Amino acid sequence: MNAAIDLAGKLATFTEAWQPRTVSLFNGHDVMVAKLRGDYHWHVHDDSDDFFLVLAGSLEIDLDDGTTVTLGPGQLYVVPQGVRHRPRAPHEAQIMLIERTGTPNSGDVATAAPRRVI
After folding, report:
1. Which of 51, 76, 91, 99, by CA, is between 20 and 30 Å from 83?
2. More confident residue, 118 or 95
3. Are 59 and 51 contacting, i.e. CB atoms less than 8 angstroms apart?
4. pTM score
5. Rg (CA), the chain
């Protein structure tokens, strides 16, 4: 690739919430953008950390120990492998995710959003 990736432009191509889109590959990982609205379900990633970088809006990540991490634009948080969590966005949040290619966003292959490359 010889061109910069415009994350805002990629985010403008879809409206669905909780449906990440892969915009690039990085050392066996998908670099993705997603729009989040409302509550996602509690889940865990047994084999990997979960990386969240907020581009616009705000995101809250509830952790199983009762802690809530609140993120605004330009802030990131990594949920450690094996920690049960629930992301939620009272209003639309736009985020970037980095996950090993093939990692199910729900923590479960059966309920994961399909991989979409844009």
Report:
1. 91
2. 95
3. no
4. 0.88
5. 13
